[in-house]
Amino acid sequence: DGGITQSPKYLFRKEGQNVTLSCEQNLNHDAMYWYRQDPGQGLRLIYYSQIVNDFQKGDIAEGYSVSREKKESFPLTVTSAQKNPTAFYLCASSPRKSDAYEQYFGPGTRLTVT
Amino acid sequence: LAKTTQPISMDSYEGQEVNITCSHNNIATNDYITWYQQFPSQGPRFIIQGYKTKVTNEVASLFIPADRKSSTLSLPRVSLSDTAVYYCLPRSDTGKLIFGQGTTLQVKP
């Protein structure tokens, strides 16, 4: 089965700790994305990567870091510098071609920081 | 990327056709218009995309007038399971998407 997996589904951390969210895809997609969603709001882009070993900041990158060492994997680290880390985090991937229009989303990780 | 405006919420009844209109006055020449559907606590799911005129698939139809300043997603004969948030998104060549608040569609029995 091809798709995107995110783990864990729920994550709890104490304030001041860094936490890494996993995102893996076996769709052979070049591009991968991380979004954050707060209650009642749309998704906001944190980081995206169009090719291995390269990534760009999205609209709300402060307090987050990513790596793209393998095509299949795009982990997101929520650092202690992120002021409001509690949110629903979604990972997505898509083909890189300009005529490819669909982003495939994972099931999401709900992070709670207390 | 173009800013989009769509209604915050809509109500409908089972079996009715639902039309959700989105305005995107400054859409770029190369941008496509995509629509996504999101259920609570799930990732969004792609529904349909178009550039102009009409596109239809097994789920929905998309109408885009010649000036491309708006688009209308049409859901035929909705059911309770169509209750969700629907997002209208211009998509550039980079693939980058900007999500707004979307339209929350509530389908009633």
Global outline of chain B: globular
Tell me the Rg of chain A in angstroms. Answer: 13 Å
Mean pLDDT of chain A: 91
**Given the helix and strand composition of chain B, which structural class is it?**
mainly beta
What is the approximate shape of chain A? globular
Question: How many beta-strand segments of chain B?
Answer: 9
Characterize the main sheet of chain B.
5 strands, mixed
Count of helices of chain B? 0
Helix and strand pattern of chain B: EEEEEEEEE
Approximately how much beta-strand content do the residues of chain B carry? over 45%
Number of helices of chain A: 0
Low-confidence stretches of chain B: none
**Structural class, from helix and strand content of chain A?**
mainly beta
Architecture overview:
The complex is a heterodimer of chains A (114) and B (109). Chain A is mostly beta strands and 114 residues long. Chain A is 0% helix and 49% strand. Chain A has no helices and eleven strands. Chain A has strands spanning 4-7, 10-13, 19-25, 31-37, 43-51, 54-57, 64-66, 76-78, 87-94, 104-105, 109-113. In chain A, strands 2, 4, 5, 6, 9, 10 and 11 form a seven-stranded mixed β-sheet that branches. A four-stranded antiparallel β-sheet of chain A has the order 1-3-8-7, with no helix packed on it. In chain A, a hairpin with a 5-residue loop joins strand 4 (31-37) and strand 5. The radius of gyration of chain A is 13 Å and the shape is globular. The model of chain A has no long low-confidence stretch (mean pLDDT 91). With 109 residues, chain B is mainly beta. Chain B is built from no helices and nine strands. In chain B, strands 1-9-8-3-4 form a five-stranded mixed β-sheet, with no helix packed on it. In chain B, strands 2-7-6-5 form a four-stranded antiparallel β-sheet, with no helix packed on it. In chain B, a hairpin with a 5-residue loop joins strand 6 (61-64) and strand 7. The N and C termini of chain B lie far apart (38 Å). The mean pLDDT of chain B is 91. Chain A binds chain B through residues 31, 35, 40-45, 48, 50, 59, 88, 90, 92, 94, 96, 98, 100-108, 110, and chain B through 32, 34, 36, 41-46, 49, 87, 91, 93-102.
